[in-house]
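Ticket #4471: structure output looks truncated?

Reporter: J.K.
Steps to reproduce: submitted the chain below (460 residues) through the standard prediction queue, then opened the result file.
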Amino acid sequence: MGSDLYDVEVQRVTDRTAVLGIEVVHPDAGPPAATIAFALMVLLELAPGDAPLAREVSLDDTMNAAWLRRFARGFVEDVRVVADHVPQTQDSALGWRGTMTITVTHPGWVAHLAPGMRDASRAFSETDTFDRHPPVSPRLAFDPAAGAAGLGRLASALLAKGAKMVRGALDPAARSGTIALPRELWLEHGPPRSTPRVVETAAHPASAYEPQHTMHLWAGAERLRTWHGRVVWHQRAGDPADHPSVDTVVVDGSTVYLLHASPGQTGVRVHRDGYAGRIGLARLREGAKVADRASLHELLRTGLPQLVSASRRGRQARLVLRVVPGIAPPVEIDSATAFYLLVAPLLPAPPPFGWMHLVPELAKAPLSDTLRSIASDEGRLPKLTDLIRLYHSDVVAGVDLASELPERRDLDALPFSEARALFESPWPRIEVVVTAYHEESVQHLDVPFEERPVVLRRWG
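Returned output as attached by the reporter:
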């Protein structure tokens, strides 16, 4: 989330009210916002993993405007900020000091606080509009006298006796806990061939799920193979209790892959022989506070176009790109993109992490020799982002889109089955014609890429 913005100290806690002393410690931070969103994030930052608040709310929730608008008033009733010291400088609030008084809807939400507690905060307010919501209670019966430390003991006792857990009302708008995404979103990370064509992934933050059929300490690859392609809740050995993850498990041989997706990024965690920690099938928990599903449109913007085939004639190259169905390609077809299309087949596969900011190792080709002659410093090329930015105009004379862009669709309105069918069907393709200044710049392009499509990336 960036640098520390505030210094926070708990001054008083009484029943449902906490008084926090706050000081601005970063020159770019403003005074703390007197909003429910800001207050909820500060309370969560101070909460250990076994606190009632940490069990009910995740950091992802406090950064989700839709979730905050819908549920935040169920946790925080009122927020008041009073300034004790205001700096005289006009361009910075550095040194601002004051108090924030937070009144919550249940004693459990401040039970983890005690006078004298102090921590750094990076809190901010994602929204300042909030819907009405009835007070939310902790998922387990809570004894204010026992505090947060006693909650874990109480939970153990209840579960040992088979007592019924006290839960909040089931959210009537809670939807399916999973969505369908195409395998291509993870192509740049080198996932195994056993990855399903359409990957079932979590539709909500990890706090909305609970594990079932849980394996503890160690789960071997053979045992996890029965969950291949399923969404799992997991927590690595040694990780904080309040940092579980929900990913899709793929098993290939003795290696376990955990595929993650969130708006703007995808990732793959690789575990040899098995998984060390706690892992179970993810289930959307009863009473989970969930807003809308993750947006398919936003997630699919990570799936940038792929170069699948090319042909050349003279100084022109005709390039065929496969694009994600239903959305407009998020890469502008300009001369910089055209230059990258020419260079991309010469890059190693799969590329290393952070490869756009590394010095490229280009395969042998006339274009590689040309770039080394005009752009190298003692035989060393600049990093790829600089190579594109500085030298695309030396190679590309023109670029044209030779086909229509695919039709846009409201992907978020599609149920799981229709999304799966869309991603399993042939994907739309577009053609781009690139004209180079010299024929040598396109000589390496008479090859198909179907076995290893070249994934295009943003740069800059």
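Triage note (M.O.): checked the attachment and the full token line is present. Residues 179 and 415 are 8 Å apart (CA to CA).
Status: closed, working as intended.
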